[in-house]
């Protein structure tokens, strides 16, 4: 199949390129300068040129805190951008696989969020991503929204790389221990998306609508940091573990409010044979790749 990928330089974009490299699909991958999804004209022109069979949207405005003061930009990409992709895909009669976030929820749940649960974003980023989901649902006949969470990889900026850097710079660190979620390896998400592309190619169908894809074991940011340090030391990515203090969200104020509990229920994808990300195993792989100096 001819797969059109947006946001090729992001964590997911790079992992998806790696995943497709071993497949029989033809990939047409674009960065934000080659294909700015906020521009309807650019989207229309590239779709006409590529004539894809399916679209994978890995492009997003992902600066959660900055979004609080850049609402227009966040919505231009995460809402209008998704709408442009949906319109162009619809005019070609092709489906869109789109990625969204756990931050569409308010975090007040006491059990993992199902795709059908009530959304109530706490910040501009979450609101812009939810608006994108809604725009897609309004315009596209066949689409998948995969909500994911706490994404890490060997590429770009993420919590794993930040913790490893801080471990070399500091002797002591404080990390929030009262926000719970599921770390997700972007490489596993990429493989899950590729598996869905394969299913679509074979059957012409997919379980259209909203699904959740994330790591299999919930933790807190503090728990995630502790695991990163243990594995970092084991793999030689750091040579000492800093003293780690658990703090509350109140003690680490950020411009954007984050959900306290954003564990996602991944059952609907498991029923399709797509297993959740084994993030502990993936963390070992990422440590190895970082030792090989992926940037
Ligand atoms: N990272 C997380 O923890 C997390 C958590 C939950 C959900 N998600 C979702 O998962 C998906 C993938 O996230 P990620 O971590 O791979 O994000 P990322 O590393 O921040 O990559 C996003 C990519 O989108 C590109 N982009 C931004 N504006 C664009 C535009 N107008 N047109 C085209 N491309 C544009 C960026 O390019 P430039 O660098 O050139 O701007 C960047 O390469 C996103 O939908 C995100 O909302 C992420």
Describe this structure in words.
Pfam families: RmlD_sub_bind. Pathway: Carbohydrate biosynthesis; dTDP-L-rhamnose biosynthesis. InterPro entries: dTDP_dehydrorham_reduct, NAD(P)-bd_dom_sf, RmlD-like-bd. The relative contact order is 0.16. The chain is of the alpha/beta class. Strand 4, helix 4 (about 125-140) and strand 5 (about 145-150) form a beta-alpha-beta unit. It has helices at about 10-20, 40-50, 70-90, 125-140, 160-170, 185-205, 220-235, 265-270, 280-290; strands at about 1-5, 25-30, 55, 95-100, 145-150, 150, 170-175, 180, 185, 210, 220, 245. It has nine helices and twelve strands. It has a domain at about 1-155 and about 185-215 and about 265-275: Rossmann fold (3-Layer(aba) Sandwich), CATH 3.40.50.720. The strands form four sheets. It has a six-stranded parallel beta sheet with strand order 2-1-3-4-5-10, with helices on both faces. A two-stranded parallel ribbon has the order 6-9. It has a two-stranded parallel sheet with strand order 7-12. The protein binds NADP nicotinamide-adenine-dinucleotide phosphate. NADP nicotinamide-adenine-dinucleotide phosphate binds near residues 12 and 150. NADP nicotinamide-adenine-dinucleotide phosphate binds near residues 7, 38, 77 and 129.
């Amino acid at each position: 199949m001819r797969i059109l990928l947006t946001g090729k330089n992001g964590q997911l974009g790079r992992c998806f390129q790696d995943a497709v490299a071993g497949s029989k699909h033809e990939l047409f991958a674009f960065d934000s300068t080659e294909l700015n999804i906020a521009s309807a004209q650019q989207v229309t022109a590239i779709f006409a040129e590529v004539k894809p069979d399916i679209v994978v949207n890995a492009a997003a405005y992902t600066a959660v805190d900055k979004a609080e003061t850049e609402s227009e930009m966040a919505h231009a990409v995460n809402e209008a951008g998704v709408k442009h992709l949906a319109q162009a895909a619809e005019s070609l009669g092709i489906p869109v696989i789109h990625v969204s976030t756990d931050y569409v929820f308010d975090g007040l749940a006491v059990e993992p969020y199902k795709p059908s649960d009530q959304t109530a974003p706490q910040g501009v980023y979450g609101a812009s991503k939810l608006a994108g989901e809604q725009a897609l649902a309004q315009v596209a006949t066949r689409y998948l929204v995969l909500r994911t969470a706490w994404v890490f990889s060997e590429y770009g900026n993420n919590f794993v790389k930040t913790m490893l850097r801080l471990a070399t710079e500091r002797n002591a660190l404080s990390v929030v221990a009262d926000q719970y979620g599921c770390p997700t390896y972007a490489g596993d998400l990429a493989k899950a998306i590729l598996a869905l592309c394969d299913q679509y190619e074979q059957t012409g169908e997919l379980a259209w609508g909203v699904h959740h894809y994330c790591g299999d074991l919930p933790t807190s940011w503090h728990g995630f940091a502790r695991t990163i340090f243990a594995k970092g030391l084991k793999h030689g990515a750091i040579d000492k573990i800093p003293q780690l203090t658990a703090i509350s969200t109140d003690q680490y104020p950020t411009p954007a409010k984050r959900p306290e509990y954003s564990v996602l229920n991944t059952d609907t994808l498991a029923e399709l044979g797509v297993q959740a990300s084994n993030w502990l195993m993936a963390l070992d792989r990422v440590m190895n790749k970082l030792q090989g100096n992926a940037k």
